[in-house]
């Protein structure tokens, strides 16, 4: 991949536009030095892989595949360890296996991983016991610790973000291509879950069917090598544009720009202004793009986003990630889907059942109810069923660890349990067993569809 000065400028057109949610870096010279260094670093992904993901998402847009996108709300530098990465990947692969079988379609697996270090916030400051400090904006910007020093934005963190992403992606690639993620192994993990989970009996029938299907394939002589590797892609919110554009390169094969920090990037609910820098940036790169759509999104907004980001109406280029809230999805989603479908555009529709369902527990913990999450997904399936459109997938915040951040689930977490293992740096995540519960329950919905 070479960098050609003229085309590379296309990665900077955002600079003349208002960019929401950017840190107030105190030292602009230090930032410039960091950007220059990042520009010299090698790509984290190959542009051809981004094209491959776009093609896979094209199948989702056509109703021939399902997208599972998930991972942390905010990755943290001190959580870049083998166990955490493995557990997250394991959980996503287990969910993917269940959904693949139940839906009888390929499941495109995309992690919120290897780059999900930057957070948009609803308030610029945080106050504790009368002390007010700048809000935490993700490990790429400042520290989580509630001290004045930690909360100062430090551009050196952008380099740490790159290195943490590289280390994470390296292990993910090793696991997914080196045999760890063998489908038979993934199925064995699911069988363990079904055996040990209080709600597992409900899923026993499905797990048994998968078992039979695998035995059947085995008996037919399907090459076991086929099961050994799995395709897995990385994604994160393209929030800090200095970082994203420093990692935007001209692909030597095509002369087009790619953000090589991840296979897919998305634009968040707080930064999707049509005349803003984030949409401008996303419009210039060839990666598959996601956009979060909250409950105030109008059909006109959605159509204008399509014009900006998918002018060629290319299935797989654009994914709308709706995050309406369980109480609004049945009301807000139909008009969006109807008008977009009527326009002839073929976008991928996926459901983020997390961000519209957050509330603060009496203990002060930000949390979500598993039942609300499930209900939003149910509403999403109902709407698509009634319109005859494809419920393309889900986008969830999860971890492979046994944290206590969301309430409910088969192995029920109560509000009083939240303090036990509340480890997230930002939003509450489904823990391992809640994530698997969700996969089995979504699998049932997908089948009914
Ligand atoms: O992850 C998403 C956002 O950063 C988060 O929901 C914002 O949360 P806040 O309201 O705590 O800033
Ligand atoms: C910030 C996030 O979501 P949204 O933009 O939908 O609020 C997120 O996905 O963590
Ligand atoms: Mn979040």
TrEMBL record:
Catalyzed chemical reaction(s): D-erythrose 4-phosphate + phosphoenolpyruvate + H2O = 7-phospho-2-dehydro-3-deoxy-D-arabino-heptonate + phosphate
Molecular function, one GO term: 3-deoxy-7-phosphoheptulonate synthase activity
Residue ranges, annotated region (Disordered): 1-25
Enzyme superclass (EC): transferase
Keyword annotations: Amino-acid biosynthesis, Aromatic amino acid biosynthesis, Cadmium, Cobalt, Manganese, Transferase
Gene Ontology terms describing biological process: amino acid biosynthetic process; aromatic amino acid family biosynthetic process; chorismate biosynthetic process
Ligand binding (Mn(2+)): 73, 355, 397, 427
Binding site for phosphoenolpyruvate: 112, 269-270, 292, 323
Pathway: Metabolic intermediate biosynthesis; chorismate biosynthesis; chorismate from D-erythrose 4-phosphate and phosphoenolpyruvate: step 1/7
Matches recorded under Gene3D superfamilies: Aldolase class I
Co-factor remark: Binds 1 divalent cation per subunit. The enzyme is active with manganese, cobalt or cadmium ions.
Cofactor requirements of the protein: Mn(2+); Co(2+); Cd(2+)
Similarity comment text for this entry: Belongs to the class-II DAHP synthase family.
Stored NCBIfam families: DAHP_synth_II
Protein's UniProt name: Phospho-2-dehydro-3-deoxyheptonate aldolase
Species of the source: Streptomyces palmae
Lineage of the species this protein comes from: Bacteria, Bacillati, Actinomycetota, Actinomycetes, Kitasatosporales
């Amino acid at each position: 991949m070479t960098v050609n000065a003229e085309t590379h400028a296309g990665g900077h057109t955002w600079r003349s536009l208002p960019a929401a949610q950017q840190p107030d870096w105190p030292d602009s010279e230090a930032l410039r030095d960091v950007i220059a260094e990042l520009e010299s670093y090698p790509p984290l992904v190959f542009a051809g892989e981004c094209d491959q993901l776009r093609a896979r998402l094209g199948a989702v847009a056509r109703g021939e595949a399902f997208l599972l996108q998930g991972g942390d709300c905010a990755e943290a530098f001190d959580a870049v360890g083998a166990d955490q990465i493995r557990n997250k990947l394991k959980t996503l692969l287990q969910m993917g296996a269940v959904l693949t079988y139940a839906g009888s379609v390929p499941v495109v697996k995309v992690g919120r991983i290897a780059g999900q270090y930057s957070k948009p916030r609803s308030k610029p400051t945080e106050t504790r016991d009368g002390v007010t400090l700048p809000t935490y904006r993700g490990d790429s910007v400042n520290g989580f610790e509630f001290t004045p020093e930690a909360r100062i934005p430090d551009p050196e963190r952008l380099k740490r973000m790159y290195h943490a992403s590289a280390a994470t992606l390296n292990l993910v690639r090793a696991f997914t291509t080196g045999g760890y993620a063998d489908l038979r192994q993934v199925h064995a993990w699911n069988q363990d879950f079904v055996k040990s989970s209080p709600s597992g009996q409900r899923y026993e029938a499905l797990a048994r069917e998968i078992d039979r299907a695998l035995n059947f394939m085995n008996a037919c002589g399907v090459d076991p090598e086929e099961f050994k590797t799995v395709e897995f892609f990385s994604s994160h919110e393209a929030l800090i544009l200095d970082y994203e554009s420093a990692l935007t390169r001209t692909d030597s094969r095509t002369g087009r720009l790619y953000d090589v920090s991840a296979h897919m990037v998305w634009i968040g609910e707080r930064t999707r202004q049509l005349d803003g820098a984030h949409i401008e940036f996303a419009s210039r790169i060839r990666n598959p793009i996601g956009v979060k759509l909250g409950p105030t999104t109008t059909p006109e907004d959605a159509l204008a986003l399509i014009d900006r980001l998918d002018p060629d109406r290319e299935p797989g280029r654009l994914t709308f990630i709706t995050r309406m809230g369980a109480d609004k999805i049945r009301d807000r989603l139909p008009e969006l889907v109807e008008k977009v479908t009527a326009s002839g555009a073929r976008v991928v529709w996926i459901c983020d059942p997390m961000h519209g369902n957050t509330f603060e527990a009496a203990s002060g913990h930000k949390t979500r109810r598993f039942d609300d999450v499930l209900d939003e997904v149910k509403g999403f399936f109902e709407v698509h069923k009634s319109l005859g459109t494809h419920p393309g997938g889900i986008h969830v915040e999860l971890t492979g660890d046994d944290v206590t951040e969301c309430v409910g689930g088969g192995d029920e977490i109560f509000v009083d349990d939240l303090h036990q293992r509340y480890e997230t740096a930002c939003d509450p995540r489904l823990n391992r067993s809640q994530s698997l519960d969700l996969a089995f329950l979504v699998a049932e919905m997908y089948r009914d569809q």
